[in-house]
Design goal:
With about 160 residues, the chain is of the alpha+beta class. It contains 3 helices and 5 strands; from the N terminus they run αβββαββα. The protein is globular, with a radius of gyration of 18 Å.
Length: about 160
């Protein structure tokens, strides 16, 4: 008997973090209808959205991120999270759904923080309502098309 590979320890730790997070999220109001949904948008991009479901009774698209933090108020959110969710929503034709970021603590299993970007208002009164996020996401997409000299065509 030698020592088990490190990959086993990492896998066990990842499973513990994920299972504790899901337990917390399901108890707090996450409903998962579909997961890992791949799409190809006629706008010229594609991807895989993590969750179609609802958060606190509101239909949503949700994405998971991980960070190290002790309490749920310690999670960091970035505008890129809202832009990514806008890309999923527009690309799947589900722009009417709420967009939810779920941040899972890697350092404290079971600790999660959730932000619904569709209803969020920052301290200065700015928010990321769907229309604003969609417009910003489409502007970033257009900039990427220009910078990469890429124009999608469908035949």
């Amino acid at each position: 008997g030698g020592r088990e590979p490190l990959a086993t320890e990492v896998g066990v730790a990842a499973y513990l973090i994920a299972s504790k997070a899901m337990e917390t999220l399901l108890d707090r109001g996450l409903v998962i209808e579909q997961s890992e949904v791949s799409f190809a948008s006629p706008l010229g991009y594609g991807g895989t959205l993590v969750v179609l479901g609802s958060w606190l009774g509101r239909p949503c698209i949700a994405d998971f991120k991980t960070q190290e933090f002790e309490e749920s108020r310690g999670a960091n959110y970035y505008q890129e999270h809202a832009l990514q969710l806008a890309g999923y929503a527009v690309g799947t034709g589900k722009a009417h759904l709420d967009r939810v970021s779920i941040i899972i603590s890697r350092s404290h299993p079971g600790v999660v923080d959730v932000r619904n970007w569709s209803t969020y208002q920052s301290k200065n009164g700015n928010g990321w309502p769907n229309e604003r996020a969609d417009a910003a996401g489409l502007a970033v997409l257009e900039a990427w098309f220009c910078l990469s000299n890429y124009r999608p065509t469908w035949s």
